[in-house]
Amino acid sequence: MSSNTSFLSPHPKEIKALLEPAILKRLQKEKRGQGYGLDYKPFLTVRDVPSKGRVHRRPALTHNRIVHLLSDLELAAFLVFDWSSSVTDIREQFPLNPEATIDIAKRLGIKHPAYRGVLQVMTTDFLIDLDIDGRSVNHAVSVKYAEDLEDERTLEKQELERRFWENEGVDWFIFTEQDVPAISVKNIRWLAPHMHSYDLEDSERVSTFESIAKVLDGNSQEKLPVLLKELDVKRNEAVGTHLQYFRHFAAQNAFIWDIHSKPHTSLKAGDVAMSDYWLIQEANYVHA
Hints:
- The protein is an alpha+beta fold.
- Helices cover 36% and strands 17% of the residues.
- The protein contains 10 helices and 10 strands.
- It has a 4-stranded mixed β-sheet with strand order 3-6-7-8, with helices on both faces.
- The chain is elongated, with a radius of gyration of 21 Å.
């Protein structure tokens, strides 16, 4: 794949005339859709567009950057990719070269995405970098609910996106809710609502994290709720307090386990690992 973003700045005159100033500012001045890893800036954030359902901001295990996810399904897809040891980078809401997509639309006789007559920059939900046998590979992933793929206009836009990535030599995939493992869904539903259960200052965040980490260490065969209940008693807290903290921290990637194969209902202390970012106190904490 040719991953340079030279098309972002400067734009040819004809492209500038088609895109509104706010979009150009996002591309050029704010450098959206540029960078890698921790330095990447998504073209769209949770504040920029209406979503289908809830939106999510969460740190990534892959690079510790706070990612912007525009639906529950995007969250589920992201967690699948973020857990994979072969994934080295995840760039969400990645902008496609408008020169290329406009040209493809003309050739196919398909109407290019526009809003109130102003052409829009198309985006791919995820551009994923993988290390496969020492070789770097890109995958582009469009996340769509299965029912949306029954809509003719949606299919037209998907074809524009597919053709764009085909021209770039990048494999392109569609990810639907049918691709999410059932156990993953169960765990995501248990964790996601607790992303913002607390808004902790640094000292309280570190202290609580370390208390839970300490009680998990050395008790690998004990069930998680039992240990956390004991911690409630020890710290004179209401029963369930530290389980709530655990869910909050796990939603923020402080505590991790294989969410695709191990349901939260059967977790033991030995199933849970501590995030390296949290252990060295460099966590990218998402405040409420």
